[in-house]
């Protein structure tokens, strides 16, 4: 499951075991089980998220039991439901106010691609204004699917390099998103 191993002590440190792993892996393991989600729910997918937080599905098993309603205290943005084009700049501002590293889950067909609402006022996918890490399909998706999306973000957090967010490619990607 993890890459942390207890190995025999080198000469001179007999009798005590020590951890041998890279700092990236230890920090990734800690980050993956302490995600603080920020629910950005606008319609029916938000109700499914509420069910996911309930006792039947218990999202707290995955270390995400503290939903934050302040972007400065969250590191996982969960966008659920229909996003109007007028909400695009607000969504981007919320994303930029979040702590680094930050991850984004697009929950449902509306957040992923606009859903059945192909109109002038609906944003045809949030990936036009912010980068998305995991897409959860469905209209609305089941709580099991939302949990699976959270587990995929945990996998990303465990295996992500500490330096990825500081690369020029990542900074160029953020600059490429236009505000509508």
Automatic annotation (TrEMBL):
Superkingdom of the source species: Bacteria
Gene name as annotated: nuoB
Family: Belongs to the complex I 20 kDa subunit family.
Binding residue positions for [4Fe-4S] cluster: 44-45, 110, 139
PANTHER family xref list: NADH DEHYDROGENASE, NADH DEHYDROGENASE [UBIQUINONE] IRON-SULFUR PROTEIN 7, MITOCHONDRIAL
UniProt keyword annotations, A-Z: 4Fe-4S, Cell membrane, Iron, Iron-sulfur, Membrane, Metal-binding, NAD, Quinone, Translocase, Transport
Keyword Metal-binding: yes
InterPro entries: NADH_UbQ_OxRdtase-like_20kDa, NADH_UQ_OxRdtase_20Kd_su
Role according to the record: NDH-1 shuttles electrons from NADH, via FMN and iron-sulfur (Fe-S) centers, to quinones in the respiratory chain. The immediate electron acceptor for the enzyme in this species is believed to be a menaquinone. Couples the redox reaction to proton translocation (for every two electrons transferred, four hydrogen ions are translocated across the cytoplasmic membrane), and thus conserves the redox energy in a proton gradient.
Record-level Gene Ontology MF annotations: 4 iron, 4 sulfur cluster binding; iron ion binding; NADH dehydrogenase (quinone) (non-electrogenic) activity; NADH dehydrogenase (ubiquinone) activity; quinone binding
Organismal lineage: Bacteria, Pseudomonadati, Bacteroidota, Cytophagia, Cytophagales
Residues of the NADH:ubiquinone oxidoreductase-like 20kDa subunit domain: 44-152
Cofactor, how bound (note): Binds 1 [4Fe-4S] cluster.
Enzyme Commission number, as recorded: 7.1.1.-
Compartments in which it is found: Cell membrane
Protein name: NADH-quinone oxidoreductase subunit B
Catalytically driven reaction(s): a quinone + NADH + 5 H(+)(in) = a quinol + NAD(+) + 4 H(+)(out)
Subunit details: NDH-1 is composed of 14 different subunits. Subunits NuoB, C, D, E, F, and G constitute the peripheral sector of the complex.
GO biological process terms held by the UniProt record: aerobic respiration; electron transport coupled proton transport
Broadest EC class assigned to this enzyme: translocase
Listed cofactors: [4Fe-4S] cluster
């Amino acid at each position: 499951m993890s890459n942390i191993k207890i190995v025999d002590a080198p000469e001179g440190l007999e009798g005590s075991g020590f951890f041998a792993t890279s700092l990236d892996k230890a920090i990734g393991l800690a980050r993956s089980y302490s995600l603080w989600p920020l629910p950005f729910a606008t319609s029916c997918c938000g109700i499914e998220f509420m069910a996911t937080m309930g006792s039947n599905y218990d999202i707290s098993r995955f270390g995400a039991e503290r939903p934050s309603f302040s972007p400065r205290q969250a590191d996982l943005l969960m966008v659920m439901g229909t996003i109007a084009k007028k909400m695009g700049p607000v969504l981007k501002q919320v994303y930029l106010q979040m702590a680094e590293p930050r991850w984004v889950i697009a929950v449902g067909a509306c957040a992923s691609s606009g859903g059945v609402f192909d109109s002038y006022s609906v944003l045809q996918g949030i990936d036009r204004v912010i980068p998305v890490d995991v897409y959860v399909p469905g209209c609305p998706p089941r709580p099991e699917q939302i949990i699976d999306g959270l587990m995929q973000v945990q996998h990303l957090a465990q295996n992500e390099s500490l330096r990825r967010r500081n690369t020029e490619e990542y900074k160029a990607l953020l600059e490429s998103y236009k505000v509508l």
